[in-house]
Inverse folding.
């Protein structure tokens, strides 16, 4: 469960998050929608601990623990996962090598034993099959030359391996055709769990047809200005954001 | 660039002087008086009981050296060397020549143990040490032990110090010494020709695939001593040898000059694979001390279909000035150069390679990965040349630079010249920084900043690491993360 209380954050002196409060319960899928510039991506960076953002007030409690004092790697070990909108390429580092390094780094951080290579490979192969990720992609350098859809599928594969407590999907649908969208969504839905919560950041209702949210929040000017059920997304689709923009205090 | 700044700060706080081979060994040595003149040259030659032809060879080189101007065109900056303020000969007292290990000064043996270099054949054969590699241990400029000589002799392979080869195989030495790097070649090679003390001599007879890897470990110990090793490797028709060169030196406040010469010759269908993991002392955080590594390395692919490949991981030395090169004389001969050059602190590197295409249908491949960090400067200088008769010459060059932090520099100076219209030369070059985004992506997946950087750097150098013989590759990976431990974090 994640609880954000009155968060204030800025970058280079510019205020982006202005008193944002949000709670996502265990097992809940919450969507965040909002116009460009509302601070959605910034929110995802601040939660995951990206450097360069100054948190000037508020708390972020992950299962009761304030994670603001932790660096990105520590938060990851605590169960935070961010599916990037534009996943990065790491030339010369195979997907397999990357995944093993990350998984074992997190396990070590939590005091768990590292996975042996055979066990690890079994898990990866199973996860890859479920997502339709071809085996040879695992031997290629991470994300190098992958299409948009392949990169997004790779993000979901990583999520399935790292088993986060709280996953943020940052515009996961951008750059995806209908088939890829369906596959990625199926992958995410397969990871739903009573002990896991999701924050889905998106512009478009379409993704939410596949990943049906329990809650929809509207974000504007660094704050949550409206919260509703999944129907809220349909309303936004029909009417746009004009009823909610300008409501920030 | 906050994450990178953090690692840069970490560099400053970590002891850059954590070079772990910096220990000084208290070994009694015998030295010639300081300075260089004809008497010293004769002294060195006499110490080794050299035949008159070799003494004359040295003297001619010395006289030539006196007439040569010191070169200064490299992109490196250093205080002028006072050539009269150096010892040109120093040898550990106990060893008039390589012997049975039992007779070697135990202090000396301890040095190599500390460096992790296997000298005890028994232990190796009994499985205590795993690598079966024949080792010629050179301490200061003198070979102190060579292992596995008997077994190699059975295969007809000659592997011994050059000082010994001068006596046991003079005809070979006379034939090949100076035939790839002539005494007049360049200032430092000329100096080396006058005062070289020792190094490895290798001869592989026709058709023989050398039964194990050969290696030489150079350890500089004495102060104010120039190191002038000379290595000569000949692969006769259809033979193969893989040779490893390792180098370390103690931490001292004064700079030390290392001006070695390596000559490789391959005959028809022969191959020499020459790998170096160079970890000379790089100088302290302010650039004080450290080795000046001014080396001339050249391979002559004399035979048709012969091949020479240079693979190197360079992480040490204050100043590096070297261009391991290949002369592709034989038709269909091939030259390869794989290099990882890391500079940190205040190191300066002006290094690269030369591929000279002379014969027909010759090919060359250059993969150079430079990593700069700290306040260092790393220059790749490469020459690819096809002479007039070099029909169908082919070259592929990929030189990539990676910059870590804001205060280092990477420079690329390629010379590409085709005097024959059928030449096809491809050149790719990239310069990049480790991006904040990449680091954050890795950290968000649970890797610390150090682990992320090591991963990214390893990916960057992967193509070259794959070329190294296996044990060297493991050592090189460790060395890379140690030398970046500070620049990258």
């Amino acid at each position: 469960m994640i609880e954000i209380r009155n968060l204030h954050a800025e970058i280079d002196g510019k205020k982006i998050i202005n008193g944002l409060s949000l709670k996502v319960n265990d097992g809940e899928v919450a969507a965040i929608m909002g116009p460009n510039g509302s601070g959605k991506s910034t929110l995802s960076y601040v939660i995951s601990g990206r450097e360069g953002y100054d948190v000037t007030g508020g708390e972020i409690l992950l299962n009761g623990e304030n994670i603001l004092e932790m660096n990105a790697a520590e938060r990851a070990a605590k169960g935070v996962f961010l599916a990037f909108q534009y996943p990065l390429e790491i030339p010369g580092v195979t997907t397999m090598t990357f995944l093993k390094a990350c998984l074992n780094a997190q396990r070590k951080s939590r005091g768990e034993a590292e996975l042996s290579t055979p066990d690890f490979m079994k898990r990866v192969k199973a996860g890859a099959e479920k997502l339709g990720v071809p085996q040879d992609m695992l031997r290629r350098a991470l994300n190098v030359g992958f299409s948009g859809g392949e990169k997004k599928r790779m993000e979901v594969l990583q999520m399935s391996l790292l088993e986060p407590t709280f996953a943020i999907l940052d515009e996961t649908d951008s750059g995806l055709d209908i088939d890829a969208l369906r596959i990625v969504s199926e992958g995410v839905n397969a990871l739903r769990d009573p002990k896991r919560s999701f924050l889905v950041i998106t512009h478009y209702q379409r993704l939410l047809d596949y990943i049906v949210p329990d809650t929809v929040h509207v974000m504007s000017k660094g704050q949550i200005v409206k919260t509703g059920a999944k129907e809220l997304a349909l309303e936004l689709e029909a009417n746009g954001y004009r009823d909610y923009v300008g409501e920030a205090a | 660039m906050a994450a990178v700044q953090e690692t840069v700060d970490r560099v400053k706080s970590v002891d850059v002087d954590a070079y772990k081979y910096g220990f000084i060994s208290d070994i009694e040595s015998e030295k010639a008086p300081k300075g260089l003149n004809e008497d010293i040259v004769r002294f060195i030659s006499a110490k080794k009981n050299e035949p008159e032809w070799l003494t004359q060879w040295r003297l001619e080189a010395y006289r030539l050296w006196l007439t040569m101007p010191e070169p200064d065109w490299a992109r490196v900056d250093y205080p002028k060397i006072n050539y009269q303020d150096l010892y040109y000969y120093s040898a550990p007292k106990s060893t008039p020549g390589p012997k049975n290990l039992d007779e070697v000064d135990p202090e000396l043996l301890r040095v190599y143990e500390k460096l992790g270099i296997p000298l005890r054949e028994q232990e190796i054969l009994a499985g205590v040490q795993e690598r079966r590699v024949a080792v010629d241990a050179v301490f200061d400029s003198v070979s102190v032990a060579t292992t596995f000589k008997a077994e190699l002799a059975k295969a007809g392979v000659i592997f011994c110090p050059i000082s010994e080869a001068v006596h046991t195989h003079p005809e070979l030495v006379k034939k090949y010494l100076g035939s790839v790097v002539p005494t007049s070649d360049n200032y430092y090679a000329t100096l080396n020709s006058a005062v070289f003390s020792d190094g490895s001599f290798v001869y592989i007879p026709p058709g023989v695939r050398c039964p194990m890897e050969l290696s030489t470990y150079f350890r500089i110990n004495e102060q104010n001593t120039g190191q002038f090793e000379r290595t000569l490797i000949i692969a006769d028709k259809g033979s193969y040898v893989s040779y490893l060169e390792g180098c370390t030196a103690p931490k001292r406040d004064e700079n030390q000059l290392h001006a070695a010469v390596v000559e490789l010759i391959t005959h028809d269908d022969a191959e020499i694979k020459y790998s170096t993991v160079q970890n000379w002392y790089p100088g302290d955080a302010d650039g004080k001390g450290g080795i000046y590594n001014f080396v001339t390395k050249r391979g002559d692919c004399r035979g048709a279909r012969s091949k020479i490949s240079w693979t190197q991981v360079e992480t040490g030395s204050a100043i590096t000035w070297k261009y391991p090169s290949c002369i592709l004389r034989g038709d269909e001969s091939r030259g390869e150069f794989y290099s990882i050059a890391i500079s940190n602190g205040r190191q300066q590197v002006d290094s690269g390679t030369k591929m000279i295409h002379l014969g027909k249908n010759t090919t060359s491949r250059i993969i150079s990965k430079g990593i700069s960090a700290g306040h260092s400067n790393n220059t790749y200088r490469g020459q690819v040349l096809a002479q007039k008769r070099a029909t169908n010459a082919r070259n592929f060059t990929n030189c990539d630079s990676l910059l870590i932090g804001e205060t280092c520099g990477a420079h690329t100076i390629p010379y590409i010249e085709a005097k024959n219209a059928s030449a096809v030369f491809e050149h790719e070059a990239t310069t990049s920084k480790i991006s904040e985004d990449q680091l954050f992506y890795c950290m968000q997946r649970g890797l610390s900043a150090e682990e992320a950087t090591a991963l990214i750097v390893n990916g960057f150098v992967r193509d070259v690491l794959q070329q190294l013989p296996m044990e060297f590759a493991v050592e090189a990976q460790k060395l890379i993360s140690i030398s970046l431990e500070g620049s990258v974090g």
Remarks:
- Chain B has twelve helices and 23 strands.
- Chain B touches chain A at residues 2-3, 6, 435-438, 440-449, 451, 455-456, 458-463 (CB under 8 Å).
- The longest helix of chain B spans residues 449-465.
- Residues 1-17, 95-99, 122-130 of chain B have pLDDT under 50 and may be disordered.
